[in-house]
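Can't paste images in this forum, so I'm doing it all in text. The chain is below; anyone willing to post the predicted structure tokens underneath?
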Amino acid sequence: MQKENLSINLRKPLRLATGNYKNPGMYFLTICSFETRPVFGKISNNHLTMNPAGNLVMKWWEKLPSKFSRIILGDFVVMPNHFHGIIIIEPIVGEDPRVLPPAKIKWEDKWVLPYDISSGDREIVDTRVAPSVPRIMQWFKTMSTNEFLRMEKETGSKQFQKLWQRSYYDHIIRNNTDHQRISDYIRNNPARWVADRFNRP
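Text version of the structure:
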């Protein structure tokens, strides 16, 4: 059976020369496990059964909006030896009259806009880090790797000394058609594992 191909290179160390990876927009990101080893679980009946490593990958990905301002997570999927995800970086209010409000932040168990928050005379400021794709990916890889290595040490396992490949693949999503195509690819990835180019013996 022919392997599926979404024009993904295993590693892409150089960013697009004309791209600004901290501009508002949608970004499709793919990162492979070290040596594309099946670290995160197994596909069965078109569904990934995640092991502890797969669970921690999902956990740290879902923490991104808590760490970085103006981040929304799109579709994402953990696969046996790689991860796909869409990140949306929202615009800053005031940059353009068509700009949407900034991402809400959690305060007193409620999700509110940063400029709606006040405590007495002191305004509470959103202290999350300004986003850029390289910064986001560096943080995600570092945090997930650190927990993975602690887990390996606690269990006495020396099977894997690294979690991720050195770099990652990125793609700037240009339009709705592109977004829909990639979202469909992510959602259907487990069901298409047999034909996936990352599925290796």
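Residues 7-18, 97-108, 111-124 have pLDDT under 50 and may be disordered. The radius of gyration is 18 Å.
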